[in-house]
Amino acid sequence: MDRIIHTFISKHQLLEPNDKVLVAVSGGPDSIALLHFLCSLRKTMPLKIIALSVDHGLRGQESMEDLDFVENICNKWDVEFVGTSVDVNSYKEESGKGTQEAARTLRYFFFEKMMNTYQADKLAMGHHGDDQAETIMMQLVRSARPEAVHGIPVKRPFANGEIIRPLLGVSKAQIASYLATHHIEARIDPTNEETDYTRNAFRRHVLPFMKEQNPKFHQHMQAWSERARDERVYIREQAQEVLKTVHFSSNVEKFVQFSNRSFKTFPLALQRTAFHLILNYLYMKQNEDISYLHEEMFMNLLSDEKPNATLDFPQGLKVTRAYDEITLSFHAAQETEAFSYTFQPGEEAKLPDGSFVIAEWTEDCESAGRYVHLCDSHHVKLPLVVRTRKDGDRMRLKGMRGSKKVKDIFIDQKVPARLRDTWPIVTDQTGEILWVVGLKKGGVLIDLSSGPWLRLQYKNKADT
Question: What is the pTM of this model?
Answer without folding.
Answer: 0.64
